[in-house]
Amino acid sequence: MEQDYDSKQLLKNIQLGSRRSFEIFYEKYVSYIYSIAYAITKNPEEAEDICHDVFLEVIEKCREYDPRRGSIKAWLAVKTKSRALDRLRKKKPLLINRLELAVDQAEKGADDFIFIHLEKELILDALNHIPDDQREALIRAYYIGETQREIAKYMNKPLGTVKSLIRYGLNNLRKQKSLLEWVEPDGGGRHGKH
Amino acid sequence: MANIKHIPEEKLIDYARGAIPMHEAGKIHSHLLYCQECYNTLQNWQQLLNNLEPKQPPAALKERIWNRLSVHQHERKTRKHPHIVLRSLLVAAIIGFIVGLGYFINGNRKTPPVAVNDEFRAMRLQQDPQTKQIHIVPVSSEYASINGNIWVNTRRKELLLEVEGLMQLSNHDHQVWIIYKDNEMIGALLPYQNGTSRLFLRDENVPELKMLKGSIEPKGGSKIPTGPDTFYVEIKE
């Protein structure tokens, strides 16, 4: 709690224009914020932008911090999560890339965390025009949370076929006319491979 | 079950980090035994934090944030202290007063609004006790990051619009629609710089204003709103 008191004082000093306080606060939390933002988006540029926004927000709204709810670090984590999920909601190409990355990852990391919080309608809209079996495989993988093996069993298809269905499904998502504008620079922002 | 008081998410994160005093941890543990919602939130955070790879952003980020903070602080100061305005005219100009008569796209009013490139007048409008400040409202959660205000003064017949959080678009423009009580509408492109748009108008018809709304329009602007709408603000007497 002593540390939190210090951090809150740093925030107040920053508001008064203290560069030194800003540097201390920044060094103390930047890696933590950036790492969470990256875990959720898997995109370095987006994670950087989220960091930028979170720092500005907490410095300008430091009065909103309520120590009864938890530590400064936890407050920053919640802010970072909210900003990162907002980005995934608003930037469809980022979301699609994130879904694609999640397909082959054995380590779940932030995946469940993301898909539980994101509105299903976001992707379901885009799924409307892809073949039925690809749509079913994607929905089972991301929203019901079934493993590829479970999907293969339920759909009565070989595991390799299910993997292909998911891969084709994601590729088809990109081809959708409604997505074309998203992958242009103005429609979705940066979503480079990494 | 409907009346369960959930544990704040921040507290659950601290619990996941093992940063909770023992006596409090016991209470949380007891709560988690019957509250599935809090348990799920905790699990999500545990999964994320346990797999968190420590990463560092580019070194330039620190400077980027500090510069942005400095601009914000400067803006706040100039609002509070008008004598600083003259010194800061150059900075203010960068923030986005690049507005001209040519912005107005439509409208047949005898005395159409005039966009004014005058930071000092805008400041005086904001400080006039008779000026009414009204928050703008995003039309949907999709545009929840948009925030801002208008300052309107019927005596001075001036209006200042300041919007933050508009996304920069390469194939479209942000446009504001000035709507009068007789439902006539005049559109103006919103200048945009570093996420901020400001538009300062002198308009004989300010007392007749009913509403302002923002929309995304094809490059160069539209004669009529084609949408989607982004924000609105109602001007009530």
Give the SSE map.
The complex is a heterodimer of chains A (194) and B (237).
Chain A: H1 2-15, H2 19-41, H3 44-60, H4 72-90, H5 92-104, H6 111-117, H7 120-127, H8 132-144, H9 148-155, H10 159-175, H11 177-180, H12 185-188
Helix pairs in contact in A: 1-2, 2-3, 2-4, 3-4, 4-5, 5-10, 8-10, 9-10
Chain B: H1 9-16, H2 22-34, H3 36-50, H4 60-80, H5 89-96, E1 114-115, H6 119-127, E2 132-135, E3 137-138, E4 147-153, E5 158-164, E6 172-180, E7 185-189, E8 196-202, E9 209-218, E10 229-234
Antiparallel strand pairs in B: 1-8, 2-4, 3-10, 4-5, 5-8, 6-7, 6-9, 9-10
Protein model, in words:
The complex is a heterodimer of chains A (194) and B (237). By secondary structure, chain A is mainly alpha-helical. Helices cover 76% and strands 0% of the residues of chain A. Chain A is built from twelve helices and no strands. Chain A has helices at residues 2-15, 19-41, 44-60, 72-90, 92-104, 111-117, 120-127, 132-144, 148-155, 159-175, 177-180, 185-188. The longest helix of chain A has 23 residues, at 19-41. Chain A is elongated and about 60 Å long. Residues 177-194 of chain A have low confidence and may be disordered. With 237 residues, chain B is of the alpha+beta class. Chain B has helices at residues 9-16, 22-34, 36-50, 60-80, 89-96, 119-127; strands at residues 114-115, 132-135, 137-138, 147-153, 158-164, 172-180, 185-189, 196-202, 209-218, 229-234. Chain B has a five-stranded antiparallel sheet with strand order 1-8-5-4-2, covered by helices on one side. In chain B, α1 crosses α3. The two termini of chain B are 46 Å apart. The model of chain B is unreliable at 84-103 (pLDDT under 50). Classes of the chains: A mainly alpha (194), B alpha+beta (237). The A-B interface holds A 14-15, 17, 19, 22-23, 26, 30-31, 34-36, 38-40, 44, 47-48, 51-52, 55-56, 59-60, 69-71, 73-75, 77-78, 86, 89-90, 107-110, 112-113, 116-117, 181, 184-186, 189 and B 8-11, 13-14, 17, 19, 40, 44-45, 47-48, 51-58, 61-62, 64-66, 68-69, 72-73, 142, 144-145, 167-172.
